[in-house]
Amino acid sequence: MARKTTNQKAWFLVVPVVVLVAFNAVIPLMTVVNYSVQETFGDNVFFWEGVKWYEQVLHSARFHASLLRQITFTGIILAIEIPLGVAIALTMPKKGFWVSVCLVLMALPLLIPWNVVGAMWNIYALPELGLLGRIINGLGINYNFTQQPIAAWFTTIMMDVWHWTSLVVLLAYAGLRSIPDAYYQAAKIDGASGWAVFRHIQLPKMKRVLTIAILLRFMDSFMIYTEPFVLTGGGPGNSTTFLSIDLVKVALGQFDLGPAAAMSLIYFLIVLLTSWVFYTLMMKNEEQ
Amino acid sequence: MRKLTWLAPTLYITFLLMPIYWLLNMSFKTTNEILGTFTLWPQEFTFDNYIKIFTDPTWYNGYFNSITYVLINTVISVSVALPAAYAFSRYRFLGDKHLFFWLLTNRMAPPAVFALPFFQLYSAVNLFDTPIAVALAHCLFNIPLAVWILEGFMSGVPRELDETAYVDGYSFPRFFVRVFLPTIAAGIGVAAFFCFMFSWVELLLAKTLTSVAAKPIAATMTRTASTSGYELGLLAAAGTLTIVPGAFVIYFVRNYIAKGFALGRV
Amino acid sequence: MAKITLQDIRHSYIDNPVTEDDWALKHMSVDWADGTACALLGPSGCGKTTLLNIISGLLDPSEGKVLFDGKDMTGTPTDQRNIAQVFQFPVVYDTMSVYDNLAFPLRNRGVSGAALESRVHEIAAMLDLEETLHSRASGLTADGKQKISLGRGLVRADVSAILFDEPLTVIDPHLKWMLRSKLKELHQQVGATMIYVTHDQTEALTFADQVIVMHEGTVVQIGTPVELFERPKHTFVGHFIGSPGMNLLPCEIRDGAAFFAGTRVETDHAVKPAGAAKTTQIGVRPEFISFADQGVAVEVVKVSDAGRHSIVETQAGDHVIRLLLDEGEKAPEGQAFLHFDPGHTQVYADGWMVE
User: Fold this and answer.
1) CB contact under 8 A, B204 and A226
2) Are residues C92 and C148 in contact, defined by beta-carbon separation less than 8 angstroms?
3) Domain assignment of residue B101, given as a range
4) Chain segment B138-168, per-residue pLDDT in tens
5) What is the CATH code of the structural domain delimited by A21-287?
6) Can you give the pTM of this predicted structure?
7) The complex's ipTM?
């Protein structure tokens, strides 16, 4: 990599980006911080409350429950999507006409508006009208995602796997394509088994893209809102109420601005800290 | 063993296409058929749902609104990200690393956190319910993304290119537009693709920042679903139509997708 | 250790080759005696790597057979051919230590315990890798990595042949010399058949006892370095090997002799009438031309110093003729006459030497 030269004038090139992002990030963030330390009874009258809302949120059973659901959900979808994505990428054709077909069809779910994803899965999974609902009930399993928490979880997870595994596939596939043929040829000559090729060639070369895939899937699944909201509305009961859904319920549904703001910041911090730790570990690993 | 490797991608693609097929299937059915009998393909094939969408302004305006803010956002994001990415890839300056990381943190902000403050902010500056508001709001996550992708592509261009151009007497703007941009055309394509994609699929902010005039298509659908619950055919047709622009875009950039991903930058 | 034979090999990357140009490798049969150090020399795209991959079994030839010690190996998978191959870019398993890299091919073949350990140490000693044996392979320099690639081939005692595919491409110039002499030394020590693909004539001529020159998918000449130099069978060989390359001058054939620009040129062998040949040329290396009182009339254009000798560029009509002068010899100025050493002057008809 070429060496960079120090040039403070480069700031001029960055100014438009900083202005636009700051407008969108800093002002709203300040608003949230502002709300999070005050109480209001309407009419734009605010009272200083200090860290009261933070304490309330951190001790609230409701927040704990949402957080636990969120962590469980993210854990499950990572455990499914990453290995599945890698497996699909490994079996994809390497060249020719079918590569384009696979890429285009696989990328399709990524470009569907998120609430359409929710609506589509709703229609697909309806116990009476939906294909999936019919199939599962046809197997003799009583399935109704609007009534049974387990069915709701199952459907939400299926939907997320459907929606996002392709991202992992595309990343892993790109990682695999960057391995020179000589590695596979050398492995053949060395008499390596298929597992050894995966363990010692493919996996190490995919490490970087997989880290990015895990990071992205962690962040995005942790922030998930629209798809489960449209599919289940957070129900039945609160069974699929993840952090974002809960937050919107508190903020816009109950208009409890203080607690909602405090919750927002705690939430943001969790995502940020986890990503940062992950990012740092990744960078450290890369330097070795 | 080897002969069976096509099986996994085929099964996976089938799994991907089944819900889409079901949506398509529903969109060509009459409400009676949907509610009356369970059929794997439309028995009374109808275009009524599509005709309704193409003739009712509240429906088709939704498409225009969506496309408008997505395009505005893509243009803004990519054009401001270009010089910034150049600065990050070529120069060292005060606070560059922190700035870069700060930009990326915005990709990590849950939109739900910003929904309410955004509503207040854009109301305050009188942009509420305009495509511009949504386009600007989406800059929050699309600009960092575009900077990240473009920086990756630009770092791959040798500095000698810049130096040669300056020696040849090019001014910076002329060099940037005439020489540099054509060199990273693929990168611009990839960045634009991802900006388009994330702006097109995001709905929480888009819905929060609009009410009537600039309502995105996806939000129009939500209304139908909640008010008249049984217009599933119409909902399916609208949903099907939202897949079309994405499919087009993917088709055109299919050869660049893998390349963009290959940089390990998304 | 084995004798390797290619029988009537042809290969095309296209499913239905029609024209001659569709064949990446045109019809050929080659023999390598057990223990040869052979170089495959030719410019990029001449089919060298294709040939190498056919030997190692990474590629199945469209036609023909590959024999090891007379046994038909065509279609036998690579790992059962007992072949080792070193690639252009070093291939090491990043996650493993140098030791594990060297042990990998043996472990895959079920070798373990003391036998494995002693063999790995033996090979590491041979390649001067002992000091880094327990560090991560990914941390090594390019030449270190290339040694590991080589080591993974050598570690198997039973290899039939070691194939090298331009192995010094990414090595620093000053290390190239060291690695090349190391290879030569290893060849003498191990005695394995080694086939070395390169586009660099110096590498080929210093490494090999036998050089195969390839051009556009055909073998143009097989011979020792001396043969290639003194009696190039094809103008391509004359031009490609030697620096500067062979002088090629159009000539006329009459009365059983060759004439260049009206001057009769004595050649190595009797010249038959040209027959159907479209072009006839005289080929003579700069090393075998000297100034004389009579002969081919030329004008001296330029003299450049190339260390131990100087290169004189002369012009005869439209044709440039280069010759070498030893240190201390002086080139005349202006008009001069050249003498071609008859023992090293050949006639070529349509590119091929007339015999």
Assistant:
1) yes
2) yes
3) 57-218+241-262
4) 998 899 888 988 888 888 788 888 888 888 8
5) 1.10.3720.10
6) 0.80
7) 0.84
